[in-house]
Amino acid sequence: MVAFGWLSCDLPTLGWFGNPGLVKGTDFGERKFPVVEPDFGHTKLRLAREGLEAIRRIRSSIAAVAVIGPYRSGKSFLLNQLLSLPCDKGFGVGHMRDTKTKGIWVWGDPVDVVIDGVKVSVLYLDTEGFESIGKSNVYDDRIFALATIMSSVLIYNLPETIREADISRLSFAVEIAEEFYGRVKGQDVAFEPAKLLWLIQRDFLQGKSVQQMVNEALQRVPNANGDKYIDQVNQIRDSLAIMGDNSTAFSLPQPHLQRTKLCDMKDSELDHSYVERREHLKQLVTSIVRPKIVQGKTLNGEEFASFLEQILEALNKGEIPSTGSLVEVFNKAILDRCLKLYNQQMDRLHLPLPEDKLQLANNDSKVEARKLFDEQHFGRHHAEHSAFKLEEEMQKVYKNFVLANEYQSSKLCESLYTKCEDKMDHLQALRLPSMAKFNAGFLQCNQSFEKDCVGPSKKSYEQRISKMLGKSRALFIKDYNNRLFNWLVTFSLVMVVVGRFVIKFFLLEIGAWVMFIFLETYTRMFWTSESLYYNPAWHFIVATWESIVYSPILDLDKWAIPLGSLLLIFVLYWRCYGGRKLGGRYLLPLYNTQRRGSSRPRSD
Known about the structure:
InterPro entries: G_GB1_RHD3_dom, Guanylate-bd/ATL_C, Guanylate-bd_C_sf, Guanylate-bd_N, P-loop_NTPase. By secondary structure, the chain is α/β, with parallel strands linked by helices. The chain contains 17 helices and twelve strands.
C-alpha cells in the first residue's frame, strides 16, 4: 500500500445503500455535528463537545471520508449526494459568497460497512473551504492538515481544473505521507495516511481526461530563474509522483446548469451522466475505504476522539502547523515504551556498582531502547527530534542512577569504614596486647574494605581508611611496648608471690625476681624505656609473648579469664589437697628441718 493511492474509476460495481455489508446506524439522530470549530480570531481550531460525544458513542472500528477543497466548490452538496440526503436534512448548502461550513462537521449517523469480515463505521466529514474571506492561510493549513490526518479517504474536490495553488495546498499532506510512507510499506502498518482521491467537477467531459490533467499538473515546471515558489511546488510534484503507483483521478460532470436550484431537484431532473458517475463514485469510495489505523491498531469512537485531541493540540502549537509536531504526538507512546524498557534494564542492576560497569550497563540499555525506537518509531525526516528527546530522557534517568549509585556507594563504604574503625578501637583496647592479633585484624579489615566497597565513593574512602588504619597502627605500636612492659613487670611480681607463697617453687620465684630486676634496672641504667625496645633480649621476650598470647589455634585474650579461673581453681585444689597426698612434703621446701633443742616451730 502507498501513502496516497492514486485511485482508478475502473472498479467492480458495489452497491451503496442496500449492500449487505452496509447497515444504517440507529445510535444517532440523522443530523450533523460540529467536530472542530474556529477560535475567536479564526486562526486556530478547538474541539466541539457535540461532535466528540457523537463519535465517542461508536463502539466499532472507525473510518473517515473527508471532502476538502476551495470554498463555494460544492463540497457539502457532494457529501449529501454520497449519503443520499436532501439538502434540508444533510450538510448545509449555501449560495452566498461567504462559506457555509465553519471548521469540520461530521454526519451523526455513520454508515456501517463490513470490511474483511469486520464491522466498520464510516464517518463523513465536511470541511471549511479554502481561500474564503476573513481567514488566514495558517487557518486553512490547519483545516487541511487535520482532515488529512483524520481521514481514511481524502477527496480533493476541485472545480474545472487543477491549479498551481491546488498542488501547493498538498504540501502538508505530502509531508505527512513522506513521514509515514516507510512505515506503511512494511508488513506491520503503524499508521496509514489517507488515500487521496482527485475529484474534478467540470461542465464537459470532452478533450483531456482527468488522468491526463493530473499527469500534466504533476510534471515539473521549468524554473530557469530559480524561483523559490516554483521549486517548492516542483518538490511537491516529485513527491506526489513517487508516492503514487498510479496517478488516476475521477471526474464528475456538473449535475445541472441551474446550480442554485440543485437542492430542489430530484435525480430524474439531474443530468443523466452526472447521476451515473455519482453512483460510480459511491462504489469507488466504498471499495477503497479502510478503518483508520494508528499505532498499529484500529480505533473505536473513544480512541478516535482521544486521537483528535492529541492531533489538534499538536497542530495548534506554534504559529504554523508542522509535521514535526504531529510526529511527536505519534511517537509519544513509543517514547514511553522505549523509556520504560530502558528503566527496566537499569532496574536490574544491584547498586552500588563501579562507575565503568554502570556506564557499560547504561550503554547496553540505551542500545536496546534505540533498537525498539528504530523498529517502531513514526516519521522519516522529523523522527530525529523524537530520537533526541529519547536521548534526553534516558540521560535524565541515567543521572538519577548515577546519584543513586553515589549514595549507595557512600552508604556502603561508610558502613565498612565505621566497621573497620570500631574493629581498630577494639584492637586498641585488648586486655593482652598482641601485635600478631592486631596485624591479623588490620589485614582482614583492609581486605574486606577493598573487596566490598565499590562505586564512585571508593576512592575517597580508600584515602580515609588508609589514614585511619595508619593512625591506629602507629598508636597501637606506641602503646604496645609500654603496655607489654607494664604487663611483664606485673607478671614478674605475681610470679614472685606465687612461687614464694602459693606453690613454694624456688626456681619460679628466682626467675620472677630476675625478670623484675632486669626490667627495672635496665630502664634506670639507660634512663629511657624506649632503649629497651631495641634490645635483642626484649625482642626474644616479645616473640615469646606473641606465641603464648595469640595463634590461629588459641586467642588468649578471649580465653584469659576462663583459663585463669581454671588455673586458679587447680592451684587452690593442689595447694589444699595435693600436699596431703604427697605426705605433707613440698617439691622444694625452703626449710624442711628444725633446730635441735628448739621446741618452737618456725613459721614459713
